[in-house]
């Protein structure tokens, strides 16, 4: 730790809100070691209601982003603009595969993620 000219060691700087962006959650990246169950019963949360599915969680997160900007994906015009944007992103991913050497595996992964994101307005 650096020492200032008076001989005092400054206190450590607490992490700020931007420091969280540097965190990579490894649990989501680990390979599955067992096959997924054929049918998995939904887990129940503390309120007795079923926990949200991954698709519902994604919808809540993306809707939250829109709500922060005083918009909502339940508005048909906003949902349409959102879909147009995702279609443009799909076009860019296809172009990156054709021109920039994006692997087929990464291409399919990105397309799948964007197709899931396109379902958000319907989930809400």
TrEMBL record:
Pro residues composition-biased segments: 8-17
Superkingdom: Bacteria
Ranges where the record places region Disordered: 1-55
Protein name: Uncharacterized protein
Organism whose genome encodes this protein: Streptomyces himastatinicus ATCC 53653
Taxonomic path: Bacteria, Bacillati, Actinomycetota, Actinomycetes, Kitasatosporales
